[in-house]
Every structure is written in C-alpha cells, then in structure tokens.
C-alpha cells in the first residue's frame, strides 16, 4: 500500500489541489490536521477533506481546526485574526465536521497525529531529539506521522541508543528499518516554513517500508491574491513566496 501524508493545509486550496494531483496514484490519503487557518479557502478545504475521508482516507484534527470551532484565544495576534475570519466563513455543518475529527488514529503499526503523540491535546511541537524522545516514550507505534511545525524532518530510535534526527532530501527514498522506531514529521502543504515555497507532502510504501518526502509547486500568486482580497494580514500572503 502507498499512503500519502498531507499536513497543515491551512485553507490553501491551490497548494492542496497540487498535492492531490501529485498523489492520484496512491492507495490512501492521510491528512494530519490544520485543514483551516491562515488561508482564504477554509470551506473548500474542509469539504475536500471530508470527501477524502468518505473515500477511505483518514483525517486528524489540528489546533487550528479546533480553534475554528472553539476560538483561538491562545494564538498569536495574526493567527487569531485569521481564525476569527475563518470561523465566520465556515458553515455550521463544516464546523461540526471539524469538531468531530479525532486527535489521533492508530492504523496497524502506525500512529497518525497532528502534534507530538504522547499528549496530542497539548499541541506540542517536535523541534529536536528531546521532543521526539518524549513522543517515543509516550507512544508505542513503530512508525508515527505528525505535522504542526511546518518543517519536514525524520527521527529514529534504535533498540539501543539515542534518538537521531534527519532532514530528508526531496524525493529520496528512505528505508524505515523494522528494528527501529520512527517519527516522520511532515512539512506543510499550505504554509511551508523551510525556505521552499512548494507544497510539502510525503508518501509511505508499506511493502518496501520506505518513505519519500516530496514537493508540489503550485500557483502561489493566486493563493496570495485570495488572502489579500479577504482582508487577512499581509504577512500571511507574503510569506508564501518565501516559504518561511
């Protein structure tokens, strides 16, 4: 089975569509949260995520999805402006869908979660080996997949030894050796922060036991125009071209 992992779509329809076009040949799509927030197409992205789930995919709740339902009082000012606008744009049915999404899903030996997996509701970022170590200590899955930080990375825990971190190269197959545990952190579809503006996703081959981190170029200018037309903060538009 080939599984595509998309995270942090952030209401960026153009980036989302580019990733979906690039993953037409996969067997399943897993969305690791933050469907909405920041971008100008929260309703469309929510409906598309729901379609994917109805077709056999998996969709996880992110902190922006939760804030779109409950409010974002603890967010920074820019994120809070965007989430309040998002709340006004979503229908009651779309909000109800986001509210019912799970914080994590276990699928065979795999764990799907938005943030660090030992306590998903805390929305902790995985920024280094210490954060990854907390995840490994608090979970039992052999391979875990998360997003949240918008920076692609891969952590490995051998049977004996310390957690190590890799920054993956795009489209290079990485073998996930069975005698080790893994935490694959996705980059963002809708708001990359690693200096590359192309939408980020990854594909897992469960037969070959390997993962490929990939990028999908998209119409950044169109996404920017929509953000500006919606009256959202300029920084949310300008950062898309920088990938940061």
Automatic annotation (TrEMBL):
GO terms for cellular component: cytoplasm. It comes from the Bacteria. InterPro entries: Ap4A_hydrolase, Calcineurin-like_PHP_lpxH, Metallo-depent_PP-like, Pesterase_MJ0912. Signal peptide: none annotated. GO terms for molecular function: phosphatase activity. It holds the Pfam family Metallophos_2. Gene3D superfamilies: 3.60.21.10. Residues 1-206 form the Calcineurin-like phosphoesterase domain. CDD domains: MPP_superfamily. PANTHER family: BLL5683 PROTEIN, METALLOPHOSPHOESTERASE. Belongs to the metallophosphoesterase superfamily. YfcE family. This is Diadenosine tetraphosphatase ApaH/serine/threonine PP2A family protein phosphatase.
């Amino acid at each position: 089975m080939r599984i595509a992992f998309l995270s942090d779509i952030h209401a960026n329809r153009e980036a989302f569509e580019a990733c979906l076009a690039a993953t037409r040949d996969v067997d399943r799509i897993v969305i690791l949260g933050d469907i909405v927030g920041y971008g100008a197409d929260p309703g469309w992205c929510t409906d598309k995520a729901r379609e994917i789930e109805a077709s056999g995919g998996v969709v996880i709740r992110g902190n922006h999805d939760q804030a779109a339902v409950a409010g974002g009082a603890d967010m920074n000012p820019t994120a809070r402006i965007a989430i309040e606008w998002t709340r006004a744009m979503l229908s009651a049915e779309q909000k109800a869908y986001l509210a019912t999404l799970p914080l994590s899903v276990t699928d065979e030996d795999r764990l799907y979660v938005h943030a660090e997996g030992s306590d998903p509701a805390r929305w902790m970022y995985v920024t280094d080996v210490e954060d990854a170590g907390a995840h490994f200590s608090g979970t039992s899955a052999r391979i875990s997949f998360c997003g949240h930080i918008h920076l692609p990375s891969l952590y490995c825990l051998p049977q004996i030894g310390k957690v190590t971190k890799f920054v993956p190269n795009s489209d290079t197959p990485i073998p996930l050796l069975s005698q080790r545990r893994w935490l694959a952190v996705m980059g963002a579809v809708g708001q990359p922060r690693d200096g590359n503006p192309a939408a980020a996703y990854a594909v897992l081959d469960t037969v070959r036991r390997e993962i490929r981190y990939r990028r999908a170029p998209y119409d950044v200018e169109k996404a920017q125009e929509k953000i500006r037309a919606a009256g959202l903060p300029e920084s949310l538009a300008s950062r898309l071209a920088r990938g940061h």
